[in-house]
Design brief:
The complex is a heterodimer of chains A (113) and B (114). By secondary structure, chain A is mainly β. Chain A has no helices and eleven strands. In chain A, the strands form two sheets. In chain A, strands 2, 4, 5, 6, 9, 10 and 11 form a seven-stranded mixed sheet that branches. A four-stranded antiparallel sheet of chain A has the order 1-3-8-7, with no helix packed on it. In chain A, strand 9 and strand 10 form a beta hairpin. Chain A is globular, with a radius of gyration of 13 Å. Chain B is mainly β. Helices cover 0% and strands 53% of the residues of chain B. Chain B contains no helices and twelve strands. In chain B, the strands form three sheets. In chain B, strands 2, 5, 6, 10, 11 and 12 form a six-stranded mixed sheet that branches. In chain B, strand 7 and strand 8 form a beta hairpin. The termini of chain B are far apart. The chains are: A mainly beta (113), B mainly beta (114). At the A-B interface, strand 4, strand 5 and strand 9 of A face strand 5 and strand 10 of B.
């Protein structure tokens, strides 16, 4: 979807290094989410944001932190990457009060070696 | 907490045939939304169909329709006249009415064979 851009699209990193994934939206949506996708698990919520500087933990938040300093940007940081964090990461947004589903980014494939 | 189960990890169907993907969920909520998302090899997540639990009528979108059985907590997706472009991973997802985040099932990989 052209309204959400994730960067990078692919990344390979070494165990123990910090990694930041970026999500940028032009939708002006209040809610933003980070999910990870793993075989057999579907998509699982890592963190979400309900406004600038307002964030909360999801189901699998250990080892991850987030920041949202502007409406349009939502950053996901792996402070010290581990092999278990090898995954595909999706950013999504939702207009407040609109239970019509998310708008998804195209995903970032992260490999930790 | 809500859970979503998709009991068929993989399925295949011949082109032009009909296929049904299963989804069951567990919730104590009386009102909620259910969704089917499609993820083709491009990795993009595409909304296929949406159902509001308080509506008894099953949702339809062109070749896609659902069989929503609220009492059984079942939400299956029927794809009619399957096309090669329907080959994808399909995720069932649940959202509370006043919630913001989805709970996804593990997915069903569908292959449409020529």
């Amino acid at each position: 979807d052209a309204g959400i851009t994730q960067s990078p699209r692919h990344k390979v990193t070494e165990t123990g290094t910090p990694v930041t994934l970026r999500c940028h939206q032009t939708e002006n949506h209040r809610y933003m989410y980070w999910y990870r996708q793993d075989p057999g698990h579907g998509l699982r919520l890592i963190h979400y944001s309900y406004g600038v500087k307002d964030t909360d933990k999801g189901e699998v938040s250990d080892g991850y932190s987030v920041s949202r300093s502007k409406t349009e940007d939502f950053l996901l940081t792996l402070e010290s990457a581990t092999s278990s964090q090898t995954s595909v990461y999706f950013c999504a947004t939702q207009l407040q009060g609109a239970n019509y589903g998310y708008t998804f980014g195209s995903g970032t494939r992260l490999t930790v070696v | 907490a809500q859970t979503v189960t998709q009991s068929q990890p993989e399925m295949s169907v011949q082109e032009a045939e009909t296929v049904t993907l299963s989804c069951t969920y567990d919730t104590s909520e009386s009102n909620y939304y259910l969704f089917w998302y499609k993820q083709p090899p491009s990795r993009q997540m595409i909304l296929v169909i949406r159902q509001e639990a308080y509506k008894q009528q099953n949702a339809t979108e062109n070749r896609f329709s659902v069989n929503f059985q609220k009492a059984a907590k079942s939400f299956s997706l029927k794809i009619s006249d399957s096309q090669l472009g329907d080959t994808a991973m399909y995720f069932c997802a649940f959202m509370k009415v006043y919630g913001q985040n989805f709970v996804f099932g593990p997915g069903t990989r569908l292959s449409v064979l020529p």
